[in-house]
Structure formats: structure tokens, C-alpha cells
Amino acid sequence: MKATFFAAAAAMAGAASAANHRHAHQMFAKRGHAASTGFPLAPTGEVCLPGCTTIWKTITGEATLVPVTVTTVTSTSTNTSTVRITPSPTSVSVPVQTTTVVVVPTPEVQRCPTPGTYTFPATTLTVTDTTTVCGATTTKVPSGTHTVGGVTTVVTTQTTVTCPVATVVTSGGVTTSTIRMTEYVCPTAGTYTIGAHTTACQTETVIVYPTPTTIAPGTYTKPQVVVTATETDYVTVCPYTSSGLPTATPTPVAVSTPVPAPASSSAAPSPAAPSSASPSAAAPSPSAPAPGSSKTEVKGTNDHYAITYGPYVGSTGACKSKAQVEIDIASIKAAGFQAVRIYGTDCDTLVNVVPACVKQGLQVIAGIFVKPGQQCSINTPDVKKQVDDLIAMNNWDVIRLLVVSNESIMNGVCSASALVQLIKDVKSACPGYQGPVTVAETLNIWQQQEVADALCPLVDVVGANIHAIFNPNVDASGAGDFVKKQMDILKGICNKNVINLETGWKNNGPCNGKACPGADDQKKAISSIRKTCGDASVFFSFDDEGWKPAADQAWGLTAVFNLAQQ
To answer: Is the pTM of the predicted complex or chain greater than 0.70?
Structure first.
């Protein structure tokens, strides 16, 4: 990595699309290339729409920051800390003799001011050195106070962490965001987010904040993109695809030798490079056969076919960097999984997650998400954006299964007839995709005659989300039998093969009759499911997600599968 600073204007054109993922999840938009907005830039680097202000709060503490900067540490009883860094004039972090401006292939954000058809030309760039730049991330958030950005790491004892932090510099009336390598001493075991920003918004708002992005050497091509805007100030992201990249996975956080200290047995595992991630006991050997490519059956060749993944920081919901995503996906591969399920295209999912899966030889179960409150139609701007993103990616070979909507009938978002039309429209819009298509609903929805009559002729396999923990008569050891019986019932509805698109067990929370969450029970339940139907199941989920509603927070499978997370 070059020992120079790389700057990019920290701004964003217009509003961005909301995120699309499971169970009333919060809304997060695309990370994009910095571009002019006309909106004021807050001192911390966020661009806020009207009604958004930035809060500055100073709390004294014992944390030590190296180099010398003004630092704020916020700690909770769970030993999770957020460190906000403001560079001072006397900062000594990574001395730089000159400033180098590098043209890099960060995704380009394009604004369509009025409805119509827009053509964005193709572009090719060549990068010769590994470069860390300051990209811009957009996040659509509801009213309230939100912490975004920063670099999150987990340590088991007092540890010095070195990582790139995105900061904002204003000179001559011009505000730019830049990267500074920063050392931070994590005083005790726990999870630390370094360099985060806190913003308060009075209304639902799109904020923009700087994030470190690592660009590897290679040739990057952005294909010509044709977009049909159906609303004013429509924003689309034109991503680059790469070739000729090195096979090594970049590591965004360097951890020095920990200061000797007693380690808690309950502390989170320290971050590790993918090569050192411990595979699960049942991980297949490198010579194991790859999953099949049949259009009428989607399953793996081992007892844990796939896992759900979203590129979000578990504690905050902020978008992870490309380097962080690559480490996560590498650990999924090391644990023996053969596929990854994604729910939508937000948060640079197609730009970061899909290429990481290709690099690791993992299949992708892609999704198109219809948010509550929206019309169940391909003409809905957010839905059309997701379809356009998939078309622009133009990498259908890696997509093993396309899931059109997630529990949309169950949540009252789509009727059966509306979902039928959406599936037909998606198939028509994506002629390059010739693989299987399905939906994700629960068994009770599939058992409705109207739903079965409408969807069975259209889907290639029956897709369902099956969680045994929601049945109060099933304990952890019986989870596998319960899930398998539900899959058998589903197979009889359409007389087609079944893919279990979500299945898991909570690691924390209150009991639901016999179904009690907990670390030990989670391991028992997952082991039970693996024995009965793991080859046709997508396990939920990669990590705990504390930023979601309480019912959706504690499903992470990090401990069960020895996953190394960022």
C-alpha cells in the first residue's frame, strides 16, 4: 500500500435507494463515488438533507489514541466502544511528503434529474498499485440519532490496532475526505468501532459519510448503462468490474502483539485473516464435488449448503468496506459453505459481495426485495433499481438461484396475483439469466390454495423460510426433524423440490415454550438441522445484527461455524 493520502470529494448526488433485506430491517442505500450534491457537508463528513444535524459529544475516558488526536470513547456494559477521531493540526499520523491524486474505479453515482431514459457511457481504468481511497457511503435512515462509518474490530485482550480511518479536511472553502492510518489502543477485550460518526436527523434522511475503500491492481471496466428513471432526482450507481486482480485478500486492520492480560472465556474471537480461520469439523475437502446446476433442484454436496449474508456492520448496520466483505466471505468458504444468500442489491452488495464469492468459488442465491409500503411491481423505483443493478452486473453464471421477494405475501406487501406478475416481469427483464427462480414464503402461506395455484406453475423450486424456534413445542434437539417434516409437506404442494431459504436458532433471548435460545441450544439445533436437511438449507445468519429489532438480533452463527468476521 502506498504511504500517501488519497482524497475524494465527500458528497453524493441526490437521494439513494433504500436497503432491501429481511423482517422490517432498517434502510441502507448504496455506497457511491463522491459527487457534488448541493447539500451542506457536516463537519464530521456527513451530507445531510434538510432536517439533519450533527451531534458532537465529548466523554472522558482511559482509552489511549496514537497518534495524538482529539478522541471520544463511548463504552457500554457489553464492552463495545465507539471511537470518534478528529485530526488535530499537530497530528503525527503517517507523515506524508506529497499528496498524490489517483484516479480509481469507485462506483459512479449518476443523478437523473427528471423522468426519462439516460445512457451512461462505458469507461475503462487501469490501477497499477494497491490504493486506499476515501469513498463515499450513503445511508437512508429514519428520524433519530445514528452512528455510522468507522472500522470495527474485535479483540480478546488489550491490543493496539492500526487501521485506515476516513476523516474530513476543509481548506479554502473546499471540503474533502481523506484517509489517515491511525493506531488505537483497545484497553480491554471487546468490540471497538474506530472513527465512527454520529448524526441526528429530524426526518427520514439520506446521509453521506466517508469510508476507506481498498482498490487492488487490475483493469476495471464500467459497461454502458441505460437507465429509465420514473421519478425526479433518481439516483443510480454504475459499478466497475475488475480483471487481473491478485489472489491475496487484503486485510484492512493490522493488530500488534497483544499486551499480556487474562482473557475472558466469553470474549469475542479476535479478528483473523481468512487463511487462519478455523473450518468447521464437517467442512468438505478441496476435492469435494461442487453443488449441482439443475434448474429443478438447488442443494449442496455437504450438510451445510449455504448461509445468509448482508454486508453490514453487526453493531450499527453501516455498510462494510470491500476488504471487510472479502474477509467475511473467505471465512464462509473456509467453514465449508458452498453458497451465500443475499437479499437485495443495497450497500454495494453486487460490487463487493458477489466478486468476493466469485473469488472464493461460492455460488450466490440472489434476491429482489419488495419493501413494506411499496407497490409489488417492477415499476416501483426501488424494485426496478435492483433489477437494473443485476442486469448491469452481467454476471449471471455465479447466480445459482434468483429469489423474487422475501415473505412479501406473509407481510401483506404482495398479493399472489401481483407476485405472479412481478416474477414474469423480472424473468422478461433478465433474459441473460437462465437459472431457477423462486420466492421465499412460509409454509402456511404456501398452503393457501390461491397461492399454490398461482405460484406453483411459475417457480422452478419451492422456496420457504423455516424456523423451528417459532414453534413452542420444539426444543433445540428436535429442530432438524421439524424442519425436514415442513420441507416434506412443501414438496407435496407443488410436487417440486424444496430449498429451505432461511433456517436457524437464536443464541440469546427468552424461551418460546420448549424452544429456548442460547449458545448451547443454538449449536444443538444447527447440528440437528444439518443431519436431516442441511444439504438443502440456507442457514441464518452470518453474524448477530444488533441494529435490527430485538427479535432479529441474535441469530449469528459465528461461534457455531468458527466464522472470522470483520
So the answer is: no
